Amino acid sequence: MTDALTRLLASNDWLMADGATGTNLFNMGLESGEAPELWNTDRPDSIRALYKGSVDAGSDLFLTNSFGGNASRLKLHNAEGRVHELNRVAAELGREIADKAGRTVAVAGSMGPTGEIMAPMGALTHELAVEMFHEQAEGLKAGGADVLWVETISAPEEFKAAAEACALAGMPWCGTMSFDTAGRTMMGFTSAQLAALVEKLPNPPIAFGANCGVGASDLLRTILGFAAAGTERPLIAKGNAGIPKYHEGHIHYDGTPELMAEYAVLARDSGATIIGGCCGTTPDHLRSMREALETRPRGPRPSLDEITGKLGGFSSPSDGTGDEAPTRERRGRRRG
Questions:
Q1: How many CA atoms does the CB half-sphere of 151 hold within 13 Å?
Q2: Both ends of the chain: CA-CA distance in Å?
Q3: CA-based nearest residue to 335, from 15, 26, 5, 16
Q4: SS3 helix, strand, coil % of the chain, rounded to 5?
Q5: DSSP codes joined into one string, 166-189
Q6: Under DSSP, is residue 211 helix (H, G, I), strand (E, B) or coil?
Q7: Tell me: the pLDDT tens digits for 235-256?
Q8: Please, what is the Cα angle at 196 between 193 and 200, to 5 degrees?
Q9: Looking at residue 249, what is its pLDDT?
């Protein structure tokens, strides 16, 4: 039997994913530096509300509260021994909400980066990375996730390790990278290189694409890069709600629901099939996105000028796929 996401893709021209995890949990009282995954057991009603907010806004799939649920990240909170439990509960709560939706909603088990640098540049070996991702994947599988969702990856080596872990768990998966440094990932990988990489994997993802990054304009330029590579796999666009700005002690994203509605339509017309939001995206944004996708007819593939005219300028002159040397910058990042 095929998984829920594959069935949804077979019967829909586009699907709407969810919005931010971190932003919405911060709005519920999550403190900076606190591990969101601990809320799966400590505040399960808040996690149910997080998931239900996306479903009620029209999402066809939502990600579990397990982005940092690997042993490396949980070790920072002395919870590395709870990987299976916290991921299982994240998926169980999601399964509960999805099964009450009255329609098919896919539960996607979020698996973010380990936060470590892969060998040979760093100390994290392929084998250890696979082991960490596999432990997390088994927890999500046990909780009833329909599909695994590898996201915000920067290094191709880590992407490959996560793919192998999904295969070991016997689970279908999707994968996104974050292109936030002059159109490249933090480790210098381009959209064209990711499009080529997924075709070489022994267990390619159901869909792949980009999430997080800088702003919605940059993310759509990356989507156009995937489309230009000629891929026939469904593309994922999960852009931030505008640009982050520091205001009164908090990070605020300046993207309005109206801007995200424009982004959603442009993402669809750029070639994306699964369209959602990342950091800063709330249920209010999702409702506007859903309405726009349902009511505005599909248009031609937008030009770069059309994208910047509607969403604002790019953060860099290039998407990284040319011959120019990339501007390298390293930043800490957490989805949502």
A1: 33
A2: 33
A3: 26
A4: 45, 15, 40
A5: HHHTT--EEEEE---BTTB-TTS-
A6: strand
A7: 999 999 988 777 766 677 889 9
A8: 130
A9: 67
- CA distance linking residue 229 with residue 221, whole number of Å: 13
324: pLDDT confidence band, cut at 50, 70 and 90?
A: very low
* DSSP three-state, residue 307: helix
* Distance separating alpha carbons of residues 53 and 284, to the nearest angstrom: 9
Q: Is the pLDDT score of 332 beyond 80?
A: no
104-118, 239-253, 309-323: segment of lowest average pLDDT: 239-253
Peptide bond into 113 cis (omega under 30): no
Residues contacting 255, CB < 8 A, separation 6+: 215, 216, 240, 241, 242, 243, 263, 280, 281, 285
pLDDT digits (tens, 9 = 90+) for 113-145: 999 999 999 999 999 999 999 999 999 999 999
- What are the backbone angles phi and psi of residue 175, rounded to the nearest 5°? -145, 135
138: helix, coil or strand?
Answer: helix
For CA atoms 178, 181, 185, 191, the dihedral sign is: positive
Average pLDDT of the residues in 203-232: 96
CA-closest candidate to residue 241, choices 268, 266, 267, 261: 261
Nearest residue to 183 via CA among 25, 327, 45, 38? 327
User: Which residue's entry shows tokens 């505040």?
Assistant: 43
Among 67, 33, 28, 34, residue whose Cα is nearest residue 48: 28
Q: Provide the pLDDT for residue 247.
A: 73
Listed residue (135, 27, 44) closest to 83, CA to CA:
135
In sequence order, the 6+-apart residues with CB closer than 8 A to the CB of 121 are none
Alpha-carbon 151 to chain mean position: 5
Residue at 184: amino acid letter: R
For residue range 52-71, what is the model confidence (pLDDT) as tens digits?
A: 999 999 999 999 999 999 99
Cβ count within 10 A of residue 51: 27
Q: Which residues pair with 301 in a beta bridge?
A: none
Reading the block at residue 158, the tokens are 């880590």
